[in-house]
Each structure stands twice: as C-alpha cells, then as structure tokens.
Write a structure and sequence with these properties.
This protein is α/β, with parallel strands linked by helices. 53% of the residues lie in helices and 11% in strands. GO terms for molecular function: ATP binding; kinase activity.
Amino acid sequence: MKRIDRIYNYLLDNTAKLDLNAINEKRGFSASEISKELNMLRNNVSMELNLLLRNRKIIKIKGRPVLFLEKDTVENIIGYKLEDESLVFENIDELIKLSSKHEKDNDPFNDLIGAQTSLKNQIEQAKAAVLYPPNGLHTLIVGQTGVGKTLFANMMYNYAKYTKKFNSSAPFVVFNCADYYNNPQLLISQIFGHVKGAFTGADNEKSGLVQKADGGILFLDEIHRLPPEGQEMIFYFMDTGTYNKLGETERKRRSNVLIIGATTEDPESSLLKTFVRRIPIIITIPTFEERPIKDKLEMIKFLLSNEAHRVNKPIKIEDEAVKALVGSATFGNVGQMKSNIQLVCAKGFLNSIDSNKCIEIDFKSLPTDIKDGIFHLGAKRKEMEEISECIDSQLVITPDGGYKALIHEDPYEPPFNLYKIIEDKAAILKDEGADNEYIKNFITTDINVHIKCFYDKFKNDVKDREKILKIVNEDVLEFAEEIKDLVEVRLNKRFNERFLYALSLHLSAFFKRVENKRNLKYANVEGIIKDNPDEYNVSVEIKELVERKYEIVVPDMEVVYLTLLLSSVQDTQNNEHVALIVAAHGSSTASSMVNVAKQLLGDGGIEAIDMPLEVNPKKILDDVTEKVKEMDMGKGVLLLVDMGSLANFDVVITEKTGIKVKSIDMVSTPLVLEAVRKANIFDMDLDSIYDSLKEFRGYGRYIEYITSNEHKAIITICSSGQGAAEKLKDLVSDIIVNLTNEKIDIIPVGINKLKERIKSIRKSYYIVASVGIIDPKIEAPFISLEDLINGSGEKNLMNIIQNNNILITNRGQNIVVKDLCEDSLNRFLTFLNPSKIISVLIRFSSVLEKEMGLHFDNLMRIRLIIHVGCALERMVIKDGLVYKDDVSKLNNKTLKSIKKSADIFRSSLNVVLDDDEIYYIAEMFE
C-alpha cells in the first residue's frame, strides 16, 4: 500500500470513531501523531497530508497543533456537505457551526437524491400540487417499476405537513388497486365502502378509504387497475367532493381528500380520457438509467449506509464493484439496485461473521449477474470516467453516516432480517459440525432464494408488455401470463419474457387456425412425451384450461407442441459469457491486441497477460491459473496464446480449478476480435467458439468463404415452424426486401429438432442470421423477437447484411412500424384505406420528428401513427374530438411543429386536422 493511502486510511478509520461531541472537544489528528503511529518521517507525512487536502479528501483545522480529519466522515457526522467550501478552518467552532445549517431547512424533499438535479422539475410540480388553493391539485405519478413512486408520494404528504397545509395528524392512506384487480366490485367497495346487502357477502355496512383519508391524502397505487366504473366514481368525487357507497343511489357523502395516483402504464392508453383530464398534474419519475451518474452514486452510498447501519459495521467496497452495481440495475431501477446491494452486503457479512472487522466487497466476490453490470456500463465510457473521478480505489461507508429512514413502510423492504437469518443458520450449521466452506455455500444459496423471491414480484417491464401487444391481443397475453405462472409453479423453474413471447405467439397462432378451420401440418414428434413427462403433464393441464376458457376442442397433437415449447425455451437467462484471456510473450504483445479489441468492441470479458521471455514457466502457469479463476463467469475460459508450453495449459488448469478451459495458439489481433465477437455479441458457448476459431485464418479469407456461397438464408424460429413462424417470416421478408435487392431466403423452422433442421438447411444455404423466440447458438447473429419489435432488430439486420458483403439499397422505411401500424389500422378504420394512407402517416411522423428535434422510438412512432390515422378518419366523417382542457398549458412550439407537419395531409389526402385534434396530438408529447 502506498504511503499516502496508509495515511488516508489512518484518518478514515480514526475519524469514524468520533462523534459530534468528540469533534467539539477539539479532537483531531496531528502530523506528529500520524508520524509516530505509522512510523514515518514527519516531513513525509506533512507532504502527503497537503496532497490529500488539495485532493479534497481531508479537512485541516488551524491551531497548535494543526489537526486533520477525513472529510466524508465529518460530513456525515455534522450532516452538511462541504461541496464548494474551503476545507481549511480557523478553529473547530467554525466547523461545528455548519452542523446547525442543515437544521434550518427541514423541507422533506431535500432528503431525496436528485432534488437539485434529475428530480428538480418533478419536485416543483409536486410542491405546486400540494400548495394550490384551496385543497391542492390531484396528481398522477408515472414511472417504471422501482423508480420510487411510493416514496415520492410520501414526500408530498410530508411536505404538506411541513408547510402546515395538513395538520400533523392528517391521514395518508395507501391502497394498491392491483390487490383486487380480478374483483372490480370488491375493489370499488374498498375505496368507497358499501352498505349492507350491496353484494353477496356484504353482511355489514363498511366505511371506505375515501372516508378514512378525509383531511389527508389517498394514494392509489397501480391506479390503471381501476375498472372504468371505478374511474368514473373517482373523477366524480374529484369534481364534487361527494360520493356514495356501493349499494347507495344518492351521492350525499362528503370527504376532503387529495388523491395521488401512481401507474407504470401510459395514462393515455390505460386510463379513461375523461379521468386523465381531471388530473391537472402528471409527474414522471425518471428511471435509474436516466439519472446522472452523481445521483446513481449517491443512491448506492445511501443504500450501503442503510446496510452498514443495520449490521453496525463499516462497509468497504472496491471501485470496480461500484461500477458493476451501477450497471446492474437492468429491469427494476432503484428497487433492483436495493436488492443487489442487500445481496452483496449479505455475502460480505457472511464472510466477516467470525470477526468484528468491516464488510469488504470486491469485484471478484460479486454474483455473476451483478458482476456483468460492469459490461453493461462498459459501452458508456463517459459514465465510467465520471465514476473514476468521483471515487478512489475504494468507497468506505460508516454505520452512522448518511442513514435516514425516509418512509415508515417501504414496499421494497423485505419483511425479514436477512442478517439475523444468516447468523442463526450459520450458528445451527456450525453446531452440527459443518465446515466453513459448506456453511458459506449453503447460506449463499439461501440468501439468493430469500432476496430474489422477494424482489421478483416487482419485476414488471411495461415496455415489454406493450411490445407483445403489438402482435397479440390483450386477452391472449393475459391468458399466457396466467399459464406462465402455472408452469413456473408446476415445473419449479423461472421463465423470462422470451417465454411469454413464445407462448403468446403459439396461442395466438393456434386460435387463428381454429378460427380458419385449418389443421397444423405436424412434423415427426415421436419421443417428445416420453422424454419430457413433466412438461407433458403440464401441457395437458393447459389444454384443459384453454378448452374451459375458450370453449373449443384442443387437438392432442397441440399438447405435444406445448410440451415441446415448455421443454425447449430456456429458463430465465443469465448474463454469463465465455471469458477470454490473451497470453503472449513480450512486454506488451498481449496488451496491444486486447486494447484493440476493447476499443473496437467495448470492454468486458477479456484480459491480457504479458510475459517476459525470461519468466519461469511455473510462474506463468500460476499467473494464468489465478487469472482464469478471476475471469470465469460460469461458461468457461478460452486461452488465446502465442506459442510454447502455453498451448498445453488448458488441461492442467481445468484439473486444478474445475473450470472448463480450452486454448488456441498462434494468436493474432483478428483472432482476438473474432473471439470477442463470438463470446460477447453472439454469446456462443466455449466448444462452439473453440471449433469455429480453429479454422479461422483472418477476415480476408473468412469473407471470401461467406460471399462465395450462392444461397443465403435467414431462419425464423417459433414453436411449431408454422403459424406464428410464417407470420414472423413475412415480417422479416418485408424488412429484407426494403434493405437489399439481393436474394436472401427466409426459412421458418420449429423448435422441435432445431439443431437437425439447421444442419439440413446448412447443406444448401449459408445462414446469415436467426430471428425468433430462442437462440439456436449457431455461428450466426441471433435477433430476438423483442429486439425486432422494439426497433433495434431492424437496424441489427442491416448491419448483419452489410457485414456479409451484401449490397444495401435501404429505401429508408421502418418495416416493423409500417407492418404493425397497417395491421392495427385495418382493425380501427372503416372509411379510410390503411394501405393507402400508411405511407403518408409515416412521412408525417418523420417530418414531425425533424421539426421537434426529437428521436421517436418504435413504440412512440406506432402510437403516434395509429392515433393520427384514427384522427384523419374522424375528420372524414366529421366526428372530431372536442378538446376541453386548458389549451394554454400546451407547448406552443409543439403545436406549431404539429400544424406545420400536418400540412402533408392537406396536400396528399385533402384532409385537414382541426385544432382540437392537434391539441390531442400535442398532449402526447407533454
């Protein structure tokens, strides 16, 4: 450890032992004391202290002697951030005065991370809503799962009490509309109450939440789950302040309640328009991904301080581990981050259970899926650099620093004490004679079960659901979700969103066949039932559910295909990859090749080992073995080496570590690039990468081989190879026709005997790519159905075609948008012909995008085109909407852009959108 680091750690550890009283008693640490304790020359200590001061790591207090304290710890003790202030104080009293500064402003919103950055506008909206005379403005909070909607509503309530808008005993009533989603009558009864006999089982009169919340706030979480009649009752109550219980005919009851709703859905599509119009304030909470890096780091520090407070131990976390945590929140925002931090702290606590030392968290100790967060972050070089600037090699969190419970009941707080569970189980296992290694492995598994089971209930990616609804109707999707839950229970394994896509498509295609009275041409499926008895039994159960719900007969062979689907689609995917190590003789030979690969293809999953020629082979083997242990991410390690004994290390290392290792010699920069491409981008397994690289001789000959093959194909993969796969084939065909004039055959295949089918296709075709519900793990890029729908898939297809030396003649059309919009408008329009107007609508969206200086993603573009298509029809039949809200609240620049872009309809279709319709379009961008 460097001298400066030893001095800093001494100040850090000893400042953490102080409290406000101790600092007030003129406590601190002088250069002489540090010199004596660390056995260093005083001049050297003074020099390093001055450097730490310049780097804003420590505080200097003048006097005799001059005293020093660690800055971050002092900030936590006095409750005040020394952001832009001098860190040199004339005396202790000057420093202590700062501790009273934060007490002068108790605005609860100041406790929110991002109050002055990413949440500044949202907080201004919230304050306006609370303070608006006479009783505040009803508010809707919108945001993905886990962004902090419930916390934000609590802060609004606290702010109302802080400003004396509410008295200190005002109620804050929370109700989750999803809890009674399947029983609308009971849901409305919970909110408004009911009289005796209002419905079966209503034996007594009951007060509703509206009455309980009188004089305070009623927070309706997942408000989109309210049925239309419930929304109507709510907006009548918002208008008049009166309501009736279920079973009453007159609205004669009164209550003064500020309503705050929260939803993960788009209000325009999930709530009645009449309801949305009565909510004047809509606050959108940004995702974790949208927050600035400073906010992300503050959240991590805050969550770590909560865990340090719980266990009363300091937590030291490596900077690389912090980066991995920042990149690990891929679906659940702050909620998932909290889960990840509790998981790594629990594992760190387990490792320190026999000592009073701090909890230490390094990158190597992280679970694979969290460790992979550093690769997600790898593409964002600016964020990586900002993190490096904000923290040193280590972040230290003390038990008394920064902890503050913002709300009393946090839905993301597990109902169990994880650390108590660990201690109790470790004690039991130790009493039974289990060794430490067994105890750690057993409890680590147990930690995963407790935390993941608790947090999985919050995983609900609304955007994924919207994507599926573009190709199947909601009834089928909801039924598929029910089946997914059933299958997970019956088979005791988790399935990801891709399974939901596959199942929804499968059911949709089956219902279409029934509707058209067509039978599926079944392939040879002998042995499927025998090989998969559990999946078959569940499929029989699904057959019975389908027959009961839809009153149709499900053929026995359909059960066989369901069995095939359940057995073929993988469990929840993890982020494991084959790790790559480049080892070569010379001072920088390996590093140079790896640096090129990282610059071209991004950081992640590859490291270099440079070896001087004079180094002992035994030392080299030890170094490579340690690097293999460090790099392994669950799918093995590929060694790319130059020559000599290195080529034989794979067998020895596998025997020593139990990690599957293969090696390829004659390493070159093209070989390294190809390995990274196949490991990280194609996600191929170790054997497949090894087999494909053995014959690799550089990109020149590789491209020559590809282009020499006359017949090229893209395969589309769905459960049966027919029905849904044919529909997918048509969509991909349209995309390819739009991209190139060269012939590429689109071949639909089923997941039954997929490898054999692909092997057969390869005899006649060079496979350019695969698209569908399952990755066939072949030496060709895979595009998932999700990516194809959300827009990235079409772009990926263009890149793949270009990389195969196929001439691109892109006609500039977004085929996915065109096909899906045209399909939807066919269902909505009666007088206008969708195939005639779709090109005009697409041009309108492109012109508007340019006028507004925005980029529309596929979902926004589809929503805009369908809305405007229906608006055009309303103009044709003279039945336009009437805009009843305050036009002055709409953005004038947006209105001008829409009006200018809408001129295209006048010139092309002789149809003019009136002002009211334009106002509604403008609302989509508010």
